[in-house]
């Protein structure tokens, strides 16, 4: 018999129960012992099988041959990561959800064993459970690397991309996963957090929705549509611009009215076209690009964002080549922008990064030998006064250089491989570098500078340089790099330029610069932009970014 002091009273729905505490304690211990035996039997058996399966890798999952995976499982004595004796853990559900929604990141769920994982998800046998565990680990390894560093190696698909992102610390990731019941936040932090990437991700969703609804109708051949005219294609134009979001609450009429003209201008501005409000051949060709191609373009540029460093400095310069624009970025937002000119198609400006550390007032221009042979000498041959008019001087020797009279040189018989001279243009209004030059670390002899040919900034497509970046307002850029662009600093910069002497100035703080090739981006006003693939770099990625459908 139990003493009343050792009895425990509790109530059910309709009865009162009196249980002896020693008996209750015995039952509790029995249950604990049974659960412990089941829990210990499962891991011991599963660990042996996991070790065997990991070593043999019968499915030939490339990720399971990675040393980091083998080391991770060995460290935890081959204990499964995604389940225990009670079944699937919450972290497995988190990973599955991310994988099936990989399309949101511009990736393909099938690349991360989505179908295989779903097929094995409900399996109850030991072998299926361990197979699923390794499938999930392989999927995590591949997905995390792709969404963090890029699905493709940029050096294989874009040989002009030279910006590096630090590789993901996969070992650290797996260890963090093993310590968390839910890994939703951990997985959400893997893609780039830059506003440029996240805004493209949102637009990808919007354009996929447009595609699901049928996209937009292709324009047949027709006349240039202009404001004020009446034409049957005006109705189609309205529908097209409503689908892309350029026309909101337009009138239902075949007359090309003022509201439609404004919508056309918005479209032209977003696509880098001549903004005239007319739908001529160039605008018509752009309107006829299918939504599937635009989706692929967005995905390609999301991939480029994955190639970027995860941490950009508080302040940096961003050169958007296809947009022909330079931005000064502060805390991820542009505080200053200006038009630029980039390299010609056969002297394309590469994508790379560096540190702007020095600027030079009234710079000399020591002309690269290849430009001397290709550009300067042909002009001198056709016009013997060319070098003198452009204040370009000819020198021989470097340590003890002495000037050569250009009239004494036989320009027709010079060999590029044994070119005995070097040419330098003096500072002044004709100097090709303008009034200010900005130097930054890179192996390509590329820098930012002004230009005397300011009329070129009026063009929509500005590929005129030999690779360097010409900026429209070097004075404003200099004042900003020196002291946040105050009016007083601009005046000081102008005063120094007007002295006419060559001066080199070290910046107070070296500023990172990134020369990037975006053909799709969202601007500061929230508008999705597309640009022509001027250097053909999208074309080399198109085959890899096929336009498959995505299940969610």
Please give a structural write-up.
This protein has helices at 21-56, 67-75, 90-100, 114-120, 126-149, 154-157, 170-179, 184-188, 195-212, 232-243, 258-270, 281-287, 291-306, 369-382, 386-389, 474-483, 487-498, 539-542, and strands at residues 7-11, 16-20, 83-84, 87-88, 315-320, 325-330, 333-343, 352-361, 365-366, 392-396, 402-404, 421-425, 436-440, 448-449, 463-465, 469-471, 503-516, 520-522, 528-530. Strands 5-6-7-16-14-13-8-17 form an 8-stranded mixed barrel. It is 39% helix and 17% strand. It has 552 residues and is α+β, with helices and mostly antiparallel strands. The radius of gyration is 33 Å and the shape is globular. Strand 1 and strand 2 (16-20) form a beta hairpin. Residues 1-41 and 547-552 have low confidence and may be disordered.
Give a quick precis of the structure.
By secondary structure, the chain is an alpha+beta fold. The chain has helices at residues 21-56, 67-75, 90-100, 114-120, 126-149, 154-157, 170-179, 184-188, 195-212, 232-243, 258-270, 281-287, 291-306, 369-382, 386-389, 474-483, 487-498, 539-542; strands at 7-11, 16-20, 83-84, 87-88, 315-320, 325-330, 333-343, 352-361, 365-366, 392-396, 402-404, 421-425, 436-440, 448-449, 463-465, 469-471, 503-516, 520-522, 528-530.
């Amino acid at each position: 018999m139990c003493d009343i002091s050792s009895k425990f009273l509790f109530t059910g729905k309709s009865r009162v129960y009196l249980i002896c505490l020693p008996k209750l304690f015995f039952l509790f211990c029995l249950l604990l012992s049974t659960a412990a035996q089941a829990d210990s039997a499962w891991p011991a058996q599963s660990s042996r099988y996991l070790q065997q399966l990991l070593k043999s890798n019968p499915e030939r999952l490339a990720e399971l041959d990675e040393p980091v995976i083998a080391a991770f499982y060995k460290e935890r004595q081959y204990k499964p990561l995604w389940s225990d004796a009670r079944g699937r853990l919450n972290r497995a559900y988190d990973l599955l959800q991310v994988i099936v929604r990989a399309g949101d990141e511009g990736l393909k769920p099938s690349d991360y064993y989505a179908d295989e994982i779903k097929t094995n998800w409900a399996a109850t046998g030991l072998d299926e459970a361990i197979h699923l565990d390794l499938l999930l680990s392989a999927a995590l390894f591949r997905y995390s690397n792709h969404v963090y560093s890029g699905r493709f190696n940029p050096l294989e698909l874009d040989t002009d991309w030279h910006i590096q992102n630090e590789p993901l610390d996969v070992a650290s990731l797996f260890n963090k996963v093993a310590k968390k019941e839910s890994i939703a936040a951990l997985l959400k932090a893997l893609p780039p957090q830059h506003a440029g990437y996240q805004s493209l991700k949102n637009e990808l969703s919007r354009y996929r929705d447009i595609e699901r609804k049928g996209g937009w109708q292709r324009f047949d051949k027709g006349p240039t549509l202009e404001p004020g005219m009446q034409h049957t294609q005006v109705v189609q134009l309205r529908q097209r611009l409503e689908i892309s979001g350029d026309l909101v609450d337009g009138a239902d009429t075949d007359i090309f009215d003022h509201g439609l003209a404004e919508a056309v201008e918005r479209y032209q501005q977003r696509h880098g076209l001549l903004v005239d409000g007319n739908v001529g051949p160039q605008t018509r060709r752009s309107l006829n690009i299918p939504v599937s191609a635009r989706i692929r373009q967005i995905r390609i540029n999301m991939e480029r964002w994955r190639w970027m460093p995860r941490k950009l400095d508080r302040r940096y310069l961003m050169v958007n080549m296809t947009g022909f624009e330079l931005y000064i970025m502060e805390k991820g937002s542009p505080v200053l922008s200006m038009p630029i000119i980039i390299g010609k198609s056969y002297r394309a400006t590469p994508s790379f990064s560096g540190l702007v550390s020095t600027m030079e007032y009234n710079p000399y221009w020591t002309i690269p030998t290849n430009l001397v042979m290709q550009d300067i000498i042909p002009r001198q041959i056709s016009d013997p006064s060319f070098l003198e008019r452009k204040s370009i001087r000819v020198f021989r020797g470097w340590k003890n250089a002495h000037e050569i009279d250009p009239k004494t040189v036989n320009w027709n018989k010079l060999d590029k491989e044994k070119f005995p001279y070097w040419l330098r243009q003096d500072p002044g209004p004709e100097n090709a570098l303008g009034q200010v030059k900005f130097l930054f670390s890179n192996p390509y002899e590329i820098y930012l500078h002004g230009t005397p040919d300011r009329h070129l900034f009026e063009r929509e497509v500005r590929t005129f340089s030999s690779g360097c970046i010409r900026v429209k307002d070097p004075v404003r850029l200099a004042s900003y790099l020196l002291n946040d662009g105050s009016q007083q600093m601009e005046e000081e910069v102008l005063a120094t330029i007007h002295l006419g002497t060559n001066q080199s100035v070290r910046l107070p703080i070296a500023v990172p610069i990134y020369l990037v090739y975006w053909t799709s981006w969202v601007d500061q006003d929230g508008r999705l932009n597309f640009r022509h693939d001027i250097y053909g770099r999208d074309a080399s990625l198109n085959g890899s970014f096929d336009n498959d459908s995505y299940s969610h």
